[in-house]
Please model this.
Amino acid sequence: MNAHVSQGSWPVLVLNADFRPLSYYPLSLWSWQDAIKAVFLDRVNIVAHYDQAVHSPTLQMQLPSVVSLKSFVKPTTHPAFTRFNVFLRDRFNCQYCGSPEDLTFDHIIPRSKGGQTTWENVVAACSPCNLRKGNLTPVQAKMFPRQHAFAPTVHQLHRNGRLFPPNYLHESWLDYLYWDTELDP
Model:
């Protein structure tokens, strides 16, 4: 198919079979090419379209803007321990000073003192706070995280993800997304 749109344009919101996004942050999006492939493989239903179309010599098709999976994908209940998920749990703020800038992650009990790399011992920290705390315990450094480090549920990460709407939201997506902040039209 020959499309008159640039590569990477026309993202498609992907909903589970229950019409909820697979994830909020990052928002579950596919390229229009992957969405069309899924349509032809009969894996998704088209819920909404863009005004833009693609065509081949024998077929014309409006680009989907929202698709729903035909088979329900059971969401995981225990999110993976990743740097991104730690930042999302901590709402992209340093747990010592509150800064959203230059984030790293800090072992509350340093690894050299027996601290493990677990949800309960790692928090988001800006580089200056992480350097200042260094190899010290919270008591030694007199630096204590603003919130208790914990293993979040997928629901908690989705809730935090809704605090950070993406830069691009097509109007056809708004009926399926629930953000905690006002959206600009």
About this structure: Residues 81 and 118 are 7 Å apart (CA to CA).
